[in-house]
Structures are given as structure tokens and as C-alpha cells.
Automatic annotation (TrEMBL), chain A:
<keyword id="KW-0645">Protease</keyword>
<dbReference type="GO" id="GO:0008233">
    <property type="term" value="F:peptidase activity"/>
</dbReference>
<keyword id="KW-0378">Hydrolase</keyword>
<dbReference type="InterPro" id="IPR001539">
    <property type="entry name" value="Peptidase_U32"/>
</dbReference>
<comment type="similarity">
    <text>Belongs to the peptidase U32 family.</text>
</comment>
<feature type="domain" description="Peptidase family U32 C-terminal">
    <location>
        <begin position="350"/>
        <end position="430"/>
    </location>
</feature>
<protein>
    <submittedName>
        <fullName>Protease</fullName>
    </submittedName>
</protein>
<dbReference type="Pfam" id="PF16325">
    <property type="entry name" value="Peptidase_U32_C"/>
</dbReference>
<dbReference type="InterPro" id="IPR051454">
    <property type="entry name" value="RNA/ubiquinone_mod_enzymes"/>
</dbReference>
TrEMBL record, chain B:
<dbReference type="InterPro" id="IPR001539">
    <property type="entry name" value="Peptidase_U32"/>
</dbReference>
<protein>
    <submittedName>
        <fullName>Peptidase U32</fullName>
    </submittedName>
</protein>
<dbReference type="Pfam" id="PF01136">
    <property type="entry name" value="Peptidase_U32"/>
</dbReference>
<dbReference type="InterPro" id="IPR051454">
    <property type="entry name" value="RNA/ubiquinone_mod_enzymes"/>
</dbReference>
Amino acid sequence: MTTGLIGAVNNQEVREMGTTNAAAPKYKGKRNRLDRPELLAPAGNLEKLKFAVHYGADAVYIGGQKYGLRSNADNFSFEEMKEGVEFASRYGAKVFVATNIYAHNEDIEGLESYLRSLEEAGIAAIIAADPVIIETAQRVAPKLEVHLSTQQSTMNWQAVKFWKDEGLPRVVLARETSFKEIAEIKSHVDIEIEAFIHGAMCSSYSGRCVLSNHFTDRDSNRGGCCQSCRWKYDLFVDDEPVYEEGQEQFTMGSKDLCMIEYLPELIEVGVDSFKIEGRMKSIHYVATVVNVYRQAINAYFEDPENFRVKQEWIDEMNKAANRPLNTGFFLDTPGAEDHIYGPEEKAAPYDFAAIVLDYDDRTGFATLQQRNHFKPGLEVEFVGPGGTFFRQTITELTDVDGQPLDAARHPMQHVRVRTLKPVKPMDMMRKKIRK
Amino acid sequence: MTYKPELLATASSMEELELLIDAGADAFVIGEGKYGMRLAGEFTLDMIGEAVKSAKPKGVRIYVSMNTLIDNDTLETMPDYIRGIYSLGIDGIVFGDPAVLVAARELAPGLPLYWNAEMTSTNIVTAQYWARRGATRYVLARELNMEQIEDTKAKSSLEIQVQVHGMTNIYHSKRSLVNSYLDYHDDRERLDSVERERGLYLTEAERPGERYPIYEDDGGTHIMSSDDICMLENLHELLNAGVDSLKIEGMMKSMAYNAVVVRAYRQAIDAYVADPEGYSFQEEWLDAILEAQDPNRELSYGFFYKEQVY
């Protein structure tokens, strides 16, 4: 797999997965703590939160103004958090806040009031790595659950047990943990286990990288990461480059994680929360990825024995992918094929084009909010929660007063398009990128 | 009590340990790669015993590094290892993972426990958290600055340890990145084992002259700083703050170089302790280091005088 994403489903393998798993799962931990695994999605802002929840996330995690590791993301004010919590509660979904920095002495002032405000805003849990934040939350905001962040790089059951004994209901494991190790952890400790199943990965142990600090004086463990691992380097030995300088360079940059093909294993090993990475990603990315995992999880629980990974899910996933995909450390330690040494191709051949605001049954026209340039003659796809999907060519495009338009060229512009089938608010329209 | 800061060194072998004791080291961090993180050399249980025997009569302390990232497999053998090093009469265990803390408390009662999670050991309140769970020393992240070090010492009930000289780790992956890169070129045999151990470094186009050493071991891939911290000139600031232990990191350096460095810091510390008020830095201490320094590696103040943004 060089530039390929996840390939076509290997049907033989999947068939075996379906039949053998029912009798004897390959990796068996303890039963799940939750009835079914939680699908946990990132939400970089309020709009993304709404889409993540609408497309099927059981919980979302966001960043506030402080103590989070994405200082470049939009991040939520307390007011926005309240609105997000209110919106999510209509779907029975929860909102978590990432407070996952490693604090320095001067960051500690203000922590108590910040955590109390999260509690007041109705946040269900914080995701924290640093004991100062964990302990302070337990003391001043007891209604907040504390989940141990992956930044602690926890991958052994004794450490997991330690955190359980400290009163934490959930541990997010290190991304370096394999299926076998997860099974061992689940068999030793009765605690909720959260694992990243999709998205970009630090290629270092989380928290164990200060490249940004050294290269740019930005503190990676307080949100300043500038992704130096994705830069290109030359490897030298004794004053000589191992390969020609500037050609086919060395990098630490990893392909992105995608575990859709191993969903039954994830469920059966007892992972309680399936986490998708990407607070910096677009609405289209988050909604598409959540949509696929939601459908897959539901399909599994409807009929575990006959569960199959559908090709259409994989096709959908590839339309949102930013990079080539792999399975991280779940099966084995990543090797050469799991890194991106050549030029980094933008993988997704599709662009987000519009959001559906409304649909008129009488006229068959949808009102859209423009998110990218489109015009009549363009082939587009409409996608909605639960697998709604159809393809069409844009035939009629008008403004909201019905006046014909030659193109929807203004960001956030409201326009009308005749759709082949009925659509619903918050459905998305995407267009194929011309190569 | 008179202030007597510890000069802490590393050792790659018994020979180096003896040499650096003579040069003036008060204590050593040693261990084996299965449990210890980025060690200067490999000390088996027997060798640790030998080190203790050699060091103890001279009043020199031996700490064993167990602060690697621990997986389930390591848990299997860890209790025996802790019992083993405890019975040898070592002076402390360095931990990062709570699994080690919990096991050491039970299996090595009374033994000092040093919290060192490297770049994630960044604040005093968290250090006190580990103190309440048994830690006796806080090893500060190298990414902290002088103000933060002073503030930490002022607020700390623990001993604090600061690295004053040598390289630091800047990236640690579980992946075998060098082998992956060679495999990508279908060229695994390209580098021999000696080159892999000593000679490899990375460069980045925008940073000419900076050489970042890279190596692989059983713990994955490690990338190191392109410069060596050297706080000798300003050591009195750390001594004025009352830092309890000053560490010289000797990994990937020759024994001769480390002996020069230890001797220089020994002189400075002795001069300070003898007369804190009248202490003044002597250029010749630094000259000895400058003469031994690899010209491709700059001596720097690390993050001691930097403000980082985020």
C-alpha cells in the first residue's frame, strides 16, 4: 500500500471474521462496562459539535479557552459549551472537555474556577493527563468525571489499576497499545477503556515529544505543537548523508489510523469508547467519519454473527480521508508502509460543497448554505445520517428568490438546488475535485 | 544543615563509573534498558551490585533507572527486578510510570523514589501529588526555565534535581523509524551496527549546522537535542536557589569527556559550598570543557532563560 487508502474489503477475511468471531473472539477482554461502545467524536467548534452529534456521536470532546492541547483550534467559551451541552442532550449525547496539557507552575492559578465553570456548564467529563488537573477537578468539581488522557501514554494494567484506585472511571490508553494488550488490561481491571480508532496520530509516545519546543520555542505539551514530525529530514552518518540530501527524505510522519475493518475485534475486546481524532478537522470530515462508524456499530449490534464491513462504508471513509490510512499499533508495531516518506498526497478526492438548510416537498428544491464553489453541471453527492446517500448532477440553481444563478460562489450564501430525492436539514452536499 | 548539593552523573561501564567517582561525582544513575530510559550504558544486576560495592565505601550513591514506558510484559519480570536491586543496597529508584511506584513501595520499603517522567514532569503541584504517594525527589523537565526552577524549589517539600549538562531527548517513539526508513528504500543492510549506535543524526533544511542524534533500541526510536546544555557559568544561580541535585548527562559521550565535565562542575560546586558569598566563576573550569567539546555540538543554556509560547 503506497498511496492507497484502505483497499477494497477482503471478503474472505471479513467472512471469517464474521463467523469465527461469534464463537471465539480473537481478542477477548472483559465484558464492556457500557451496554455498547460509545462513539466519541471531536468538535472544534459549536457547529462541528452539532454535526457530530446529529450524525451519531454518543459523546463529543471539545476544547475550552485554557488547558487544552489545541491552542490553534476555535475552542469554546462557557456560553458555547452550555449551548453545546443543551444541543447534545436532545440526542442523549454527552460533552467532554479536553484539559490535557502538562501544566507549568504558572498555569495552575485559575484552574479551580475554570473547572468549576465546566461543571456549571453541564460538561460530563474532562480528559486530563496531569495529576494537578485530575486532583483539582476531583476536589472542586466532583460532578465532572475525570478521564485519563492518552497524553499519559498508559499501556500497562498496573498503571490502569492505579488510576482506577485514584477514582478515575476511564482511561484513554496509549496509541501504542495492541489488541492483545488491551485484552490483558480489560481482564485485570474493571474500568472503562477508551481507545483512538480513527484519525491522525502522534508518531511519538504522546507527551514524549518536544520537537516544537526545540525548533520553534513553542511548548508542545501545552498546545503549541507545530507538527515538526511531519517535516522532512536528512539522515546522516559520520558527515555523509545516507541518501542524497533532499531526496526521498526521512520523516517521523505517520499515516492516519482507521479501524473500521476491525470493528468486531474492537467491540469484542471490550473497548468502551471509540474515539475519533480531529478537533481541527472540518465538519465534512467529522460528520462523514462519525456517520460510517455509527452505521457500522449499529449493524454489528443488530446482528453480530452476520456482521460484514460494507464496501460503501470504506468508500465513504476514503472520501473524508486526509492521508493514507493504517491500523496503528492494534495488530503490530507500524513499519515502513505506515509512514509517509514521499510527497504527501491529499487523499480525499471530494470537497465539502454545501449544507442543507431546508427542503420543500412541493417544489423538490433544497435550500443550501454554500461552503465551496459549485455550479450547474457539476456532479455532487448528498449524504445524511444513517446512510442516506445519492449522487446527482446540479441542474437548477437559483437564489432564495428563485432567480437563476450561474454559480454559488459566495461563502455561506443561501441558494436553492433541485435535488433528485428529498433531503433534510444538516444533510451535506459534496463535490468531486477535478484533478 | 549545611547545603551540600549532589553532583549526579551517568556511567556506561564500571570503568567509567570508577573514573567519574575519581573526578568527583557524588551519585550515579545506572540501570538496564528493559526498565531504564535512555541510559549511558547497560548495567546488569550483577554489575549494579559491583557498582554499589565500589561506590558505597566512598560515600557515593547508586540510583537505578526504571522510568521507561512500561508495558504488560515488563510487569511480569518487574517485581523480581525490584527485589533484586533492593537487595543489592542501592540508594534509590527512578520512576515515571505509577506501576513502578506502586511496586517499589511494596517490594522496596523505605527506598527513596525519584519521580522523573522527563518532559512531562513540569510542575510542583503534580510533584507534590507524587510525593504524597511516596516520591522523595522531583526531577524537573529540561523544558522548564530558571524562574520556574526557583519557584519549584521554594514550594517543594521534595528534593529537586536539575540537569545542568549534556544532551536531552526531544522525541521518543515506539516505532523503529530508522529501520522503517531503510526498509522504505529496500536497503536494511545499509548501516552497520556501529554506525547505528553512534554515528546517526538528522538534519533539517531550515536549521543548517544543527545535528540531531537519532538511535534505536528495544524501547523504540530516540531523537536527541543538537546542543549540549552547559550551566557551568551560571551554576551559582541554581546553587543559590538550593537545587539538591545537579545532573550531568553523559550518554553518547566519551569517558574522557565526561571526566572533564564532572571535574569542572566539582570544582565549581566545591568553591561555592566553601564560600557562597565569595564565590566567583573561574573561566578555566569552562575552558577545559570547551577544549573537549565536539565542535559540531554547541554548548547552550537549554531552556533555562527562555519563555516558550503555546
